Amino acid sequence: MLDKYLLFTPGPVNVAASLRHAICKADICHREPDFDGLLARIEQKLLTLFEIKKRNRYRAVVITGSGTAANEAILSSVVGDGAILILSNGEFGERLHKTSIIHNKHTHLIQQPWGTPFDPDQIAAYLATHRIDVVAMVHHETCSGMLNPLAAIGALTKAHGAIFVVDGVSSVGAEVVDMEGCNIAFCSSSSSKAIGSYPGLSFVIGRKKQFKKLKLHAAKTTYLNLATFYGFLKQHSQTPNTPAVPLFLALEQALTNILSDGVTNRFARIRARADQLRLGMRKLNLEFVLDEADMCAILTTVKVPPSILVRDLRDRLREKSIIIYEGKGCFAGKVFQVGNIGELSDRDIQFFLSTLRDVLLELQAEAADVVAPIRPKAINPTIPALTEPMLATLSS
Ligand SMILES: *Cc1c(COP(=O)(O)O)cnc(C)c1O
User: Disulfide engineering: 28 pairs with which of 34, 76, 78, 262, CB 3.0-4.6 Å?
Assistant: First the structure.
């Protein structure tokens, strides 16, 4: 065992030492200028991370709650009495749909099997024949690793006069999300994935013009009402309720770290790590669920080799301090997922690959022992050799 776990997951992640210091830096009150300044700096850093060009047209609210809180804030705040179309090709698309039907009577769904790309023609035809005000899509569908096309869907929604909202929880911080170029009104993300901070905060970045329109809708929730968040942000640079202040300190540090690397360098480094892992895993004859061209840079979804149980693989890796994910839903038992975000060094990647090789060999050898036919050998002629019926009794 190492003295810590190496989190090869899509979040939570191993955080940088600077974040451990930042989180316990100071006790500050969220109704004091200290917090106003902290939130204002986080907001500016988020706009920089998103590489927004017309910065005065966008704002970002920060919510105390994991990524689902930001998604629920969007889904409950932007649709009003209108109609929303959810595009789903995986677990998180399905979760958007489940959340939307709680808040929005007119929720439509276009669904693809997990890991299957959307068909833009089908979506265009649907928009042409239905009145849709909002289209929602997950950018990186974490269950399969598929990166969905922001530009294509953004252009379709614009052509049909709908607004486009995006779940960027697992892509922001590793992949470009061009709010301006892709016609995105609101995008959600969270602190604990590619941004590399502790879990517990999420945020919604959006066009100011769209934030202003939110107060026209009747409120559907108290805590997650985006219009209320926007009001407090605009007037005081604060949050409506008590925020998890220490997590804000850590989030600011995480953003500072990204920006001091440079956004482009940061994205390239995460991609290089994914490439390193993928090359290493291909050398172990492992196969991936998706073509590499369709994958996001933050994780790889790998088929479980025959004769190995994913649960055993996960347990054995944990014994060596490595944490991976198991597939869920229709991928359960069939795939495992290897993330490459957070503080992972080149040495950690090499350690992962060599440990994975050892564990796979170990498990395959054990499986071979179990399934290898018992070769009847009549060493002592007085003991009869095992016959087929006897073998059947042994294995039953
Ligand atoms: C992780 C994730 C979420 C949010 O999950 P939480 O458990 O609330 O953090 C939402 N969407 C996607 C695509 C995710 O990967």
Answer: 34
